[in-house]
Design brief:
By secondary structure, this protein is an alpha/beta fold. 43% of the residues lie in helices and 23% in strands.
């Protein structure tokens, strides 16, 4: 179970992790959010989602919620395949929540690479992939994949 950190703390941690990834340690960012630019309304449903996401993440993962129902997850020492496994596990763990809330969630994955070597580029790539995830059956998309 991972605790949520503030969006500013998340960016600071991601900046630090990018420096390590630049030396060869794999790194992935996963954005989990509803379709389009939607948010989950304040209330019990959002509270349950927040707890469920924190529960589904490992203690080593850093998780932030920059908007209601949008989660950014930093996976340190995690390659593309590991990020896919993580995203699949999270979406499966949230199936009941999605059914009850009537809100579909998608996952976008961005992995550190020379063209994705800044905080902004990784977050933007993960969001672009997340938006495209609603066009595929499993609702998981990898940027550039």
């Amino acid at each position: 179970m991972s605790d949520l950190c503030s969006p500013s703390d998340f960016r600071l941690i991601l900046d630090f992790a990018i420096g390590i990834a630049d030396r060869g340690l794999p790194l992935a960012v996963v954005r989990l959010a509803p379709d389009g630019d939607g948010e989950v309304p304040e209330g019990p449903s959002l509270d349950r989602l927040r707890v469920a996401v924190a529960y589904l993440c490992r203690k080593t993962d850093r998780v932030s919620m920059p908007r209601n129902g949008q989660f950014d997850v930093l996976l340190v020492d995690c390659n593309r395949q590991g990020a896919l496994i993580f995203a699949d596990r999270v979406l499966q763990g949230l199936e009941t929540w999605q059914d009850v809330a009537g809100i579909s969630l998608g996952c976008g994955i961005a992995c550190f690479a020379p063209n994705l070597s800044t905080t902004d580029s990784l977050l933007k790539a993960a969001d672009e992939a997340r938006k495209r995830s609603f066009d595929v059956q499993d609702r998981i998309e990898i940027y550039g994949g």
